[in-house]
Amino acid sequence: MSGRIRRRERGVTLPEVVTAAMVLSIIMGTVSAIYTTAMQTWYRGASETYAERKASLAVERMRPDLQQGMSVTAAASPYDGVCIAVQVPAKAYDSGQGVYLNQLAVDTEGHPYLVQGDYVVYYRGDEGGNISVSGDRIWRRMMRASDGAILKEQVIADNVVDNPLDGTGSAKPMFVYWPDIYRLRSVEVTVTVREEFGHRTATKTMNGELALRNN
User: Fold this and answer.
1) How many angstroms separate the CA atoms of 83 and 120, rounded?
2) Is residue 8 part of a domain?
3) What is the pLDDT of residues 112-125, one digit of tens each?
4) pLDDT of residue 54
5) Cβ(176)–Cβ(188) under 8 Å?
6) How many domains does the chain have?
7) Is the pTM above the cut of 0.90?
8) What CA–CA distance (Å, rounded) separates 124 from 157?
9) Domain interval for residue 46
10) Which residues on adjacent β-strands are paired with residue 116?
11) CA angle 74, 53, 158 (to 5 degrees)
């Protein structure tokens, strides 16, 4: 038997446990803070992106209908700033090109002209499709010119809120007519959307001046 005495292995002491716990707590706190900041930044960016995209898509969806509109009519007060009716040219399907094209006719003097088609109505409304100056949706409704029957309707933007204030101190209308509704040359469309992700809210406003070609 060896005369050596084996040294007893020392265990972990309480101060070491406390120190390790404190270090681990600091590390976890730092990681948590970095993660929280990163997520808040992501939520803020996502809110801004979605709000801007929705507002922009709404304006762009109106563009072709307004630009080719044969007549543009504002709704009666108090809905004149949130509702517009556009009569678009009749369409005929071209099987060769696989697309719908504006339908043309020829008058008695041999001049071609666009055939009047149905109406497209854009308006701010509620969930049920009722027009409202405070509705949170923008609706697009296709209506038959002959009897006003609804052919198709869809929401083109949700989470819609009032536009920023204009020079009069009131919320800017969704539709502004230039130079006026009687000598109409273009329509300025302004849409504001508010989105929320992870308790981060962003509000974005998009607008566009749409020149009328056929009015």
Assistant:
1) 11
2) no
3) 988 999 999 999 99
4) 95
5) yes
6) 1
7) no
8) 9
9) 37-211
10) 89
11) 55
